[in-house]
Structure formats: structure tokens, C-alpha cells
């Protein structure tokens, strides 16, 4: 990690030490939330009414408001803990990296096996299973990008066989405004939408329940300080405005989409619900899993200068394994575990997160603390890594067999989709994001 | 007005009486805000720091918080005034029509020439010219529609000469998610965006200041109570969720738009700034200006059943005259008044506001109090009523002459665009919306 680019990749420090152990039962060796992770979220403890900020550690959650009241923080860490004590984390995200890092360092010390604060902190812990998890921020705006190049190519083939990847794709980290109001936290059921469906040979559309319901495997990005209207964020400073990451399932009604999407893009096909994982995994926690942006294929144009930063190219990409799993009603009745539909990786992003932020603000559009960006579907190049059913069934043509004896072209009522992320690398303790899970309810 | 459909068109009552006079100086005969209008907004009085809700009357603003403290309201009117006393009107809009109507009736009585409360109310009045106006709500989500059929046809010709109006247009009240964070109140300058521009014959795009900057003349719609996620609003009840109207200038960078808009729709071309008029003109104030939805041209399909309500067809459209005016630096130096670029009318909406709301929620997407909808550009069929330069210059081909001797194909730095609305009808006092005005600053 180069010291010349602290904004892009926070240096590794003692909070990443693989030898670090925690006194919290179950934290050491936890698949998602060992002491090296320390993601932030909003939860309500059992018997309480008011949501507040917390930190996931093993199978527990540390109440930041309670820990703050107990006097466990001082200085910048206290400033951050206080900002993270409310019902949403916008104010905390607005603080930017230094207070967030100070809080992380202090939390690491408090939760470490040798902590002198163990007894006091233990009073601020709750079993996660007893707590309700909420949206971590009041999402002002949500923007969905399209930077998964294999997905863009696969989907392009379905909608425009002759012209899958449009000429702007390799110049523009394209995105569109999504619907912020319908984003929900993991665990919230999603109702199958109705909409206008038109068969290719039908004379007119009809209003009916969606018949081609799909998921999309995405990385979510939480915006930190952000920018004032009219003041673009340069790509070299863009990482300073990224406060963390989550998983995002951008549920999609393919039949509604096919009929509505011209000329203004996706609208009702994607605004009936989007599901995110509840925890904000920080750039600090992901520092060990940074990689160079994969080289563009021979012949691809270089990014325009305002989107090109050598430090970002050198370590602005992420190496995160992503999974999609399905659990149908029949599978649950038969006692079968969730079945993996896809295995992909964030390295399939054609543009880095910094390039997305720089592009988004390049015309002056303001990003604000707690805003959410989606990467777009992150498919691997091979069919085993396709991040949507649209891709893995070839537009619904080939049914996918499931262990229950069923098959799927698109999602059925009762189907549950689970997204998981895992960061693993030699010399680092692997961490996860927590689940992004939701079940399909029948149309109203 | 039929009593069977009070939700679509609130009956006329004494607040609309053309004989009604106000004791507020300048209110009687005021072009925009006579006592028959009474629009709501958020303002800061001179010498004060905290914004609060107010009502425009003539050239004055009545402070609702002060009037409430003075004991001028009781019952439902007090509930509404209290909800409208804060720094944003979301809570007021959430109350829906009955409290809003009660407050209107009481305000009409307080401000009427024969009011016994005149002296007390006079202490709550401020000269509008001394006050700062703010966004009336914290806009959760902003959706821009495309229901101006003449605009859709004109623009379609520029982008797709062979196929101007797509097959879905007459079935789908299409829209797209806009950027909520960059909406600003009238009077806030707009900075010319930079973006990726690509000439048709250029090999690659370049990042440069927009060269084809345009305005769009739109009606804005403020959402009232709204709906829960997964629970569509039927078209027959949709008007209950409309809390009011404003003017909206959806600034558009045509060169950025042309390069970026496929396949996901407008993004940075329209997210560098949108300007709205500050006052929420209520459905009650507009009750005298309701008209039947103009008949669809022979051969057009009927709306699908979930978008069709006879009462809405009978009186769900609006008869509002809309104007676009320009004032350039040279015009101001020469002492010339703003020059009218277009005269249009809200009757050119192919879909009603109720149909827009019903469509938006038809897949379960939730609308929330204070959300903003845009109609899309409302052009008249004739060139004198085209609501954007893209249309009135034929895609930039024909320059428009101005009284200053200048011409315009697209907007230049220093140009100010002013939108105005006027509701006028025999037997009713005419009302306006207040200006939607902003000036273009040079690119950063």
C-alpha cells in the first residue's frame, strides 16, 4: 500500500492484524464479523423502541449510544460514536474518514481480547438474533450504475441482439436514478409487482402480475461527505466520499422492463423494491482486499482524463467473492439448504467506485451523506457466475434445475434470494457483509 | 362540479367567490396571489434565521407559525397550521385534503376584508420582497414524466426521426426517476454543467462545458399522503394524494443527453439542477380551472382499465396558461423586459395527474409526502408554444431572434429563464403560481 495514496486505500494498521482476537464470544473465526471487520448499522435492541447505531461483532451488536454514554470514547472517536448514535447514520457518514478511522481504532481496542474496557463494553452488547435491523441511513438519492461489463453484454444481447454493448459503454460509467423510497433492509419481503406486460405478438399490453421476476447481484456503495451542487469531485479525491459498502439486490420485472424502458430507461420494472444488506462495511475493513483495476481488453479506449487516476487504477478495485443463493418453498419443506445460483466477484467492474463517483458529480450533481449507489449487476464471464436469471436462463429460454426437482426460468412466489459477499486473501482474516435476503410474496 | 367525485375536483365554495376581497394591501387584483389562491410555502422573514411555513397573499406572506401562536386557528385548521409551521411542509402535505381545506377556509376568513382578526393577523405578515424563499418540502424522491405528447413527438423526431413516438407512449404514462438532491427554488443560479460531448463524426467524446443547454417547461406536482410500499393507488382515489402544484424547469444538457441516454435514460444531462417555483398551489385553489381530459385523437387506444376513471376523465385535466420568458445579459443592459419564448397550456398533457399517480404506484412503488413529480415538457402543438429550445430551434438548426438583436440556438451564460403560470376563466378570479426563475452561470 503506497503512502502517497492514503485516500484510495487506507493503510493497513493494527486493526487488520490477523493475530488480533476478541473477548466477544463467537467473534474469533466468525465468517462475517470478526474483530477485523467492525461494520456499522442501525438496530433496535430487544424490548426497546428507538433504533440506534451499532457495530456488528461476531453474533453480537455493540450499542454505540450506550457505549458513548458509558464514556468509552474520547476525542474524534467520541465525535464519530455520537454521530452514529441516532436513528440513521447520515451524520456519521458525513464526517468522512478521519473520525470513522478513529472510532474503528477505538472499537478495535475495546473489543480486543486484552481490553481493559471489556466489562463496561459487555453491558452494551446485544445478541444480534434478538435485534431488529433497519436501513442504515435515510437514503436521499439512490443511483444504479451499470459497470458489470459481462452483465451489460449479456443483457444487451437479449434486448438488442445486433448491438449488445452500446458505443458509450467504454467511455461513460453509465447509471440512472433509482427509487430511494423503496429500498428495504435484508429480511423484508418483496411483493411481486403488477404492471403492463405486452407479449411480442399481442396487440396491446395488459395489466397483470409480473411473469418474469428476477434478481440482480450488485455491490452497494454508501456516500460519505459528498459535494456541493456545481462542484465536481475529482477522481483522485473520490474515495474520500465513499463511506462503505453493502450488498444490493436490484429486483427486476423483466416483462415490465421490456415494454416500458424506451426511451427513458427502467422505471416501474425496478422501483417496487430493492433489498440491501444491513451493515455498512467500511473502506478501512476492506483495505486488505484492494486490487489493481483489471486491465482493459486490448483495443478498448483509455478512460477520459477526468476519470483516470493512476493510484485508483493501481488499487481502486475490490476483490470480493459474491454469491447468489435460492431457497424455494419446496426446498424449505424438503429441508434442503439454499442452493447456489451464481458465484461472481467485484473484480468484474469495468469502472472503479472512484470513477463512478467522479462521473456522477462531473456535471455538478451533488452527492450527499447516506446516498446509495449500486454497481449494476456483477456477472462473471462464465454462466456459473451470471448475476441474474435473465442471463443464466438466456432470457428465460433454458430452465435451471434445482435440488428439489423443480426448475426456474424466473422467480416464483415463496422463492427467497440470498446474496452473500466474502473477502478473503492470503495473510488477511476473511470478512463478510452479512446477508442480503428477501422472499417473494404473491402479487396483491 | 359533481358531488359524486369530491376527490377529483373539490367543490367550489366561498373561498373561490370572485366578490371576496382582502384587507391585505395589494392582494385584491394581484396577478398571482389574490385571496382566492392562498398557496403554501417555506420562507424566512427578515432578521430571522429559521425557515417556517407561510401563505402568499398579495405581495405579503403570512407566517403560519406566528399565526398559530397568536391563537388564530382551532380544530383541523390548527392541526394543519401547526404541521405547516416547521422548516419543511412534508408533515402538512401528509395530512391530506380535509385539514388542508379547513386551513384554507380559515385563512380565507382571517384575510377577508371583513375579518375581525385583521389586527392580530397583520402582526404575522411580512413583505414578500424582504423574505427568503426555500424549497417547500424535503423532497424524498423526484420523478419526471413525459406526458406532453407534442413534446414527446417533437423530441422523438430529433433523436429518432423514423420513430418519434414509441409504441408504448399511448399505453404507459411513462416517466423516469430524477435527481431529488439538485432541485432548487426559483432564484437560485444554475451552473452550466460539464460533461461528455461527442460530435457525430468525432472518434471519441471529450469532457467539456455543455454547448447545448436548454430549459424545459413543466408542471410540478406535490405528493400528499401517498401509499405504503406494495399497495397501488387506484386511479379513482389518486387525486387524494395530490397536495398541490408548482412550475418546474427541468434544465437539460442536450449534448450530454444525446451521448449518455442509451440504454438507461437521462442521467447527468438533467441532474445538475432543476428549478421550481416556491409556492404550493393547492388543488382547492385550482378547482375553478378543471376541465375534461381532452379526447384522444381518433384511433388512439383507450387507457387500460386500471388507468381509467370516468370522473377523472370528466374533470381531471387543468386549464393553466404556461409561459417561458428569457432575459439575456444584453437585454438587461439595454433595459429590455423579458421576452416571451413560448405560450403553452397544461391541457396538452396526454395523461392526467391522477393517471400519473396511479401508474407510478401500479407496481407497488410507494409515494411519500413531499415527493415531487414533473409532468414532462408541456409544448403546444404550434411552434409558438414549444416548451424547449430543442423543439423551437429544430434541434438547434434555426436560431431564434431576440429583441436585443441577439439570437439563440441554445442558452448562453447570463441567460435567465422565467416560467409563469396563469389560471383564468370566466366567472373566476385568475391566479398565478409565482415565478420559476434562474440564471445560467458559466461552467466552473
Fold and architecture overview:
In chain A, a hairpin with a 5-residue loop joins β22 and β23. In chain A, strands 7-6-21-13-14-16-8 form a 7-stranded mixed sheet, with helices on one face. In chain A, strands 9, 19, 20, 24, 25 and 26 form a 6-stranded mixed sheet that branches. Chain A has helices spanning 64-69, 75-83, 90-94, 97-111, 118-122, 149-159, 254-260, 310-315, 329-333, 353-361, 389-392, and strands spanning 40-44, 52-57, 60-63, 125-127, 132-134, 142-145, 175-177, 183-185, 190-191, 194-197, 206-209, 213-214, 217-223, 242-249, 252-253, 274-276, 290-291, 317-318, 321-327, 339-345, 372-374, 400-401, 407-408, 416-423, 431-432, 436-441. The first copy, chain A, has 2 domains: 14-134, SH3 type barrels (Roll), CATH 2.30.30.230; 142-441, Fumarylacetoacetate hydrolase, domain 2 (Alpha-Beta Complex). Chain A is built from 11 helices and 26 strands. Chains A and B meet through β7, β10 and α7 of A and β7, β10 and α7 of B.
Main sheet attributes: strand count, strand direction, barrel closure of chain A: 7 strands, mixed
Multimerization state: homodimer
> Uncertain runs of chain A with pLDDT below 50, 5 residues or more?
1-9
CATH topology value of the largest domain in chain A: Fumarylacetoacetate hydrolase, domain 2
Taken from the alpha-carbon principal axes, the silhouette of chain A is globular
- What's the CATH H-level superfamily name of the largest domain in chain A? Fumarylacetoacetase-like, C-terminal domain
User: Using CB atoms under 8 Å apart, which protein chain pair has the greatest interface?
Assistant: A-B, 67 and 67 residues
Question: Would you count the extended β strands of chain A for me?
Answer: 26
Widest beta sheet: strand line-up of chain A: 7-6-21-13-14-16-8
Q: What's the number of helices of chain A? A: 11
Proportion of residues in helical segments of chain A: 10-25%
Strand content of chain A: 15-25%
Cofactor (chains A, B): Mg(2+); Ca(2+)
Region (Disordered) (chains A, B): 1-25
EC number (chains A, B): 3.7.1.2
Protein name (chains A, B): fumarylacetoacetase
Amino acid at each position: 500500500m503506497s503512502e502517497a495514496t492514503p485516500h484510495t486505500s487506507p493503510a493497513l494498521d493494527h486493526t487488520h492484524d490477523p493475530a488480533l482476537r476478541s473477548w466477544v464470544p463467537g467473534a474469533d473465526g466468525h465468517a462475517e464479523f470478526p474483530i477485523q471487520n467492525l461494520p456499522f448499522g442501525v438496530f433496535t435492541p430487544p424490548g426497546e423502541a428507538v433504533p440506534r447505531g451499532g457495530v456488528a461483532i461476531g453474533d453480537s451488536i455493540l450499542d454505540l449510544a450506550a457505549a458513548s454514554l458509558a464514556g468509552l470514547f474520547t476525542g474524534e472517536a467520541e465525535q464519530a460514536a455520537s454521530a452514529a448514535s441516532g436513528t440513521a447514520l447520515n451524520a456519521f457518514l458525513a464526517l468522512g474518514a478521519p473520525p470513522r478511522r478513529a472510532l474503528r481504532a477505538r472499537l478495535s481496542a475495546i473489543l480486543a481480547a486484552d481490553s481493559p474496557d471489556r466489562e463496561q463494553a459487555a453491558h452494551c452488547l446485544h445478541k444480534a438474533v434478538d435485534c431488529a435491523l433497519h436501513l442504515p441511513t435515510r437514503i436521499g438519492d439512490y443511483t444504479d450504475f451499470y459497470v458489470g461489463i459481462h452483465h451489460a453484454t449479456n443483457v444487451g444481447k437479449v434486448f438488442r441482439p445486433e448491438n449488445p454493448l452500446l458505443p458509450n459503454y467504454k467511455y461513460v460509467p453509465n447509471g440512472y436514478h433509482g427509487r430511494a423510497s423503496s429500498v428495504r433492509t435484508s429480511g423484508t419481503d418483496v411483493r411481486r409487482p403488477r404492471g403492463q406486460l405486452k407479449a411480442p405478438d399481442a396487440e396491446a399490453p395488459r395489466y397483470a402480475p409480473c411473469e418474469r421476476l428476477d434478481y440482480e447481484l450488485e455491490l452497494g456503495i454508501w456516500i460519505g461527505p459528498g459535494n456541493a451542487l456545481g462542484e465536481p469531485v475529482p477522481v483522485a479525491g473520490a474515495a474520500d466520499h465513499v463511506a462503505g459498502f453493502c450488498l444490493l439486490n436490484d429486483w427486476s420485472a423483466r416483462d415490465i422492463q421490456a415494454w416500458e424502458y424506451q426511451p427513458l430507461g427502467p422505471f416501474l420494472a425496478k422501483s417496487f423494491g430493492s433489498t440491501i444488506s444491513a451493515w455498512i462495511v467500511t473502506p478501512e475493513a476492506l483495505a486488505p482486499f484492494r486490487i489493481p483495476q483489471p486491465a482493459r481488453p486490448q483495443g478498448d479506449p483509455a478512460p477520459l482524463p477526468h476519470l483516470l487516476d493512476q493510484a485508483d487504477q493501481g488499487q481502486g478495485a475490490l476483490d470480493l467473492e459474491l454469491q447468489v443463493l435460492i431457497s424455494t418453498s419446496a426446498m424449505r419443506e424438503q429441508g434442503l439448504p439454499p442452493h447456489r445460483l451464481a458465484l461472481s466477484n467485484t473484480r468484474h467492474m469495468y469502472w472503479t467506485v472512484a470513477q463512478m463517483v467522479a462521473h456522477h458529480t462531473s456535471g455538478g450533481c451533488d452527492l450527499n451523506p447516506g446516498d446509495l449507489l449500486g454497481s449494476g449487476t456483477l456477472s462473471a464471464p462464465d454462466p456459473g457466475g451470471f448475476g441474474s436469471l435473465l442471463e443464466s436462463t438466456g432470457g428465460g429460454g433454458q430452465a435451471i434445475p434445482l435440488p428439489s426437482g423443480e426448475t426456474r426460468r424466473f422467480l416464483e412466489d415463496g422463492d427467497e434470494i440470498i446474496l452473500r459477499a466474502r473477502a478473503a486473501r492470503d495473510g488477511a482474516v476473511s470478512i463478510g457483509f452479512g446477508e442480503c435476503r428477501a422472499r417473494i410474496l404473491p402479487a396483491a
